[in-house]
Amino acid sequence: MTIDSYSIPAESKKLLHDELVNNKLHNSAPKEIVEAAKYIHYTGSQLPVIPINWRFAESVAAVKGYHGAMLNVLLKKKYGIPYQNISINTDHAQSFFISIMLPTIDPHGEKITTNLTVNPELFEKYFPSCDIHDSMGPLAPAFDRACTNIYKTQDGRFYHLHLSMNHRPTQEALRVERDDEAKDIPSASRKYQERVSEWDALALDELINEKYRQAGTVCLTKEEYFASPHGKANAHVGLFEVHHIANEKQKADWWTPVEGKTTPSRPLLGLKVLEFTRAVASPIMGKELAEYGASVLRITSPKVADITVLNVEMGWGKWNAHLDLTKQEDRDQLRVLIQESDVVIDGYRPGAMEKWGFGKDDIIALFENKDRGIVYARLNSYGWYGPWTHRSGWQHIADANDQNTGITWEFGHSMGLDEPVSPPFPNTDFCAGVGGSIGILQALMQKGEFGGSFVVDVALNYFAQWLIRSCGVYPPGVWDMLWTMYDRPVFRCTDNMNVLLPRFMQMVKEKGNVVLNPEFFEDRENKAIGVPIRTIKPVLSFTEGLVKPGYNVGTRANGVDKARWPEELLTEVVV
């Protein structure tokens, strides 16, 4: 395929139909989705502008299209309306996966951005820090931020470390000597490289994952991943899996509607979604549901670290309440909340919520003798089959091992290197989260038809392996054009997100500004904090105007609300 014939909108449409709707790995989807997907239409620039060899633009546009198609099926099944025409601008879709870097708080006043190197005290006036380990953010010591990076091992392989919101366990595992004189990531990385070079990759993997229970992975090529026992164990999964837990006591039903307000315009209004989430992917699942009217209550803890800067974008449509699960009374309160919910989303590492009695089986059991079931969705990094299921992980880890399937290796090769390099931007996080929300929509429809409870399994690796097997990289001519447009920059394995994100954002602003078109932004009212926020509009545009994406409540800091479901689901702050 030549540059002249390449088209992102056309390729996105092809991916939607050939690699999602008609993909045999998604054969549990309602059969109506084949017809519903015909109402998804793509526009946008023909050629890519973000200098990454992987087809991120096409992947996010296709996954959002699949979301629109599944929502169309729900609209027809629940409300009896015709399929709606949905337009997706592929330039706008790319702004979705960089959206956490784009908001402006109080855009007509103080103009506070999420760049915390500039006036962090203004940002924390609205979103106080939850970095209880002082590990994250641009103001943390460079030495601690260098804990998340790729380093070469003694046996010539590459290993991706991750600080996992607390740098100390990984530093302890490596017995790395602090270097507080280091002022940047390259200089801060030297001490880590010295220690990692003393280990063979597999021995280091055992130390980090099994002994210290931290996130880390050997950087595998895609061939190595798919040939591994873990790759083979998860190869049969698409973006998600939906499992039916039959129970003859639990009748077929939808959620309780809000009289006069649960309509096609806000089709998920009345749906109560309880979130146990952090970071990006699992909060995206709840946010995607909130966009169409669902009420989401996110449970956080004052004793658990969180990346507060992400709340600005991840928190739309959500209340946010603290519970401390070390306290019996808070565990009792959480059980009550779960039993009043329609959907539960668990984004913590496998085993974390089980420890407190809130794992998959525990939650399903709470509904065993009720006349309705629950939809329980869980997300991990590696997938729900195979020897690495229990491991902790983040997008960087998925990108290294399977992305975690070889995505880092392919990005390095595209720049002429024989080393893995992490592509910037959380495309895997965002697309995996959207995939999870699609799975929840499917489960809600099946619950409305068959009754019982449903489990939706989601993983960062599920999207990553789809990206590799179904989406792929740009054709050589297109990639050469794209790379040359930015003077063929070369990044190295030790350039982590602290290095890559600012550089790539600057490149996009200089030459890829179609992705940052002012028409894609809106000044969104936010009564929860008292000032509006300028942010990205919803990606799906409903041509007939019947369905109205948006959010019932504004975004906010952790612990603002009381941990209860309000009687009035449009209540701004729960007191």
UniProtKB/TrEMBL annotation:
Pfam family, one: CoA_transf_3
GO terms for MF: transferase activity
UniProt protein name: CoA-transferase family III domain-containing protein
Gene3D superfamilies: Crotonobetainyl-coa:carnitine coa-transferase, domain 1 (3.40.50.10540)
Listed InterPro entries: CoA-trans_III_biosynth/detox, CoA-Trfase_fam_III, CoA-Trfase_III_dom_1_sf
Record family assignment: Belongs to the CoA-transferase III family.
Keywords attached to this entry: Transferase
